[in-house]
Amino acid sequence: MRHDRIKPIERGERTDFHACPIDRSAGFSTGRPYADSMSDATAIADRSEVPAGGSHRFTAEDAFGNETEVILVPCEEDPGVRAWVNNCTHEDQRFDTGRGAAIRDGEIICPRHGSMFDACSGECDNGEASGTALPGVEIAVEDDTVLLTDEHYDYLHDGGVNDGDDGPGSTSHVSF
């Protein structure tokens, strides 16, 4: 296998880095995943697409064929990004409905009841969801590219499952 010839990895492309060299001659910068790296990972986004005070949302499919929304959020711990299922543990409420999740002081804020989840650990210690933790999705960051490495999910597309939902209904008690 020649490592001096690389091909770009497109968003959503699933690859086994050990068996699939990347072609540097294709005009791609070297700031991308390359051979001898993570195996069987899917490129989701560049780290720059995860805003400091918000989230990057994508849809993945679980082993049962269910579409699940996942959000990438900034975290002060390495690798600088975490991935969580895009739902509050208290009620069926999405954090990011298409405008980015509300994040303040390193915490993801539920728009329905105001419970706050640590962006790095997923744990909640206040509000209706106190004592719970968000379901995590395994990712890795290599050369500023966020890779989906969780064997329980397959990347489907950017954005949500149903982008027609505008967020919390009339029961929302939180305003920003």
TrEMBL record:
PROSITE patterns: RIESKE. Residues 77-148 form the Rieske domain. CDD domains: Rieske. InterPro entries: Rieske_2Fe-2S, Rieske_2Fe-2S_sf. Keywords: 2Fe-2S, Iron, Iron-sulfur, Metal-binding. It holds the Pfam family Rieske. GO terms for molecular function: 2 iron, 2 sulfur cluster binding; metal ion binding. It comes from the Archaea. SUPFAM superfamilies: ISP domain. Transmembrane segments: none annotated. This is Rieske (2Fe-2S) domain-containing protein.
